[in-house]
Amino acid sequence: MNVLGIESSCDETSVAIISNGKLKANLISSQDFHAKYGGVIPELSSRAHLQIILPLLKSALEKAGLRKEDLNVVAATAGPGLIGALLVGLTFAKGLAYSLNVPFVPVNHIEGHIFSGFLMDDKPEFPYLCLVVSGGHTLLLVVKSDLEIVRLGSTVDDAVGEAFDKVAKMLGFEYPGGPLIQKYAGKGNPDEIKFPIARLKNKYDFSFSGLKTSVLRYIQKLQKEHINLTDNEKENISASFQKAIIDALTQKVILALNEFEVASLSLVGGVAANTALRESIVNIGKSFNKKVIIPDLSFCGDNAAMIAYRGMKLHQLGQVFGYGYNAYARMPENTFTSINAL
Ligand code: KG4
Ligand code: ZN
Description:
The chain is an alpha/beta fold and 342 residues long. It has helices at 42-64, 83-100, 109-114, 160-170, 178-185, 209-225, 231-259, 275-287, 305-316, 332-335; strands at 2-7, 12-19, 22-30, 73-79, 104-108, 128-133, 138-145, 148-154, 264-268, 291-293, 336-337.
């Protein structure tokens, strides 16, 4: 069975093919031109997706040694994401599936990330505790099976990636700022500044807006003395901020591992590319004697391999969607179960 996956929810256009369970192609075209605007410009993103999607499909088919007529299932991200960007991949995929007379599977982008660990040779085992950290979402979940996801907590304000990007902007770094914060943090002292970690009513929820404001106040205080921050100041702010984020995330992971019996632990999403966070999660897994699955970097940021995998799974499980599905049809809010299910 040959499954095509298409991802176009934000600033990555990606096309992937899974043949008989094996990933044959995962091409990702990143729209780097947004960097100069300090964030993703939705209109420009949609137009760039339109330009690249067909050549990307052709290259992916070539790489997999297939013709479009060999495709048996077509899956695409149906939401959440930028509506114009989503519509490019979604309508392209639906049109292709319709013309080939094969099933179309709409995939929730977050579900794509949640199951991205299955793209690795060493796969998660159900039930697993899953920490989703991306530019738009921060969630702590227990994934009981392919079709049962229990939400323990989520962010009440900014997503982790968003916090990284906003703090990066304050420090004068280009978008997306996460990788640059990591780079500067590597040279700084994480204990130089004590940034606050929020406490919330639901012990599994997260909040990063207070931390963000605290970093801003710290920068403003320094700027009263000198307008341009020194590299050393940027390094220490990056390291201390990154430590506060990792502490906030890992506290909840430890809490959940103590409360719920799970077989493994998985860290997914764009921010899962962060080396210090990966190391912390690996160490927690070791101390709890749990198998840890963190996808390779090419499966952390937005990619179509995870969409093809999820599409393939939903198809194998007998889920039928038709060609009428619209963006936002499969939202996490509709598919996640509450904590009472545990
Ligand atoms: O999952 P993703 O590619 O897109 C969304 O679905 O949102 O996540 C993108 C986010 C951005 O906010 C980016 O700054 C962050 O992931 N990111 C990182 C790192 N690499 C990417 N954050 C921290 N450290 C990194 N190394
Ligand atoms: Zn994503």
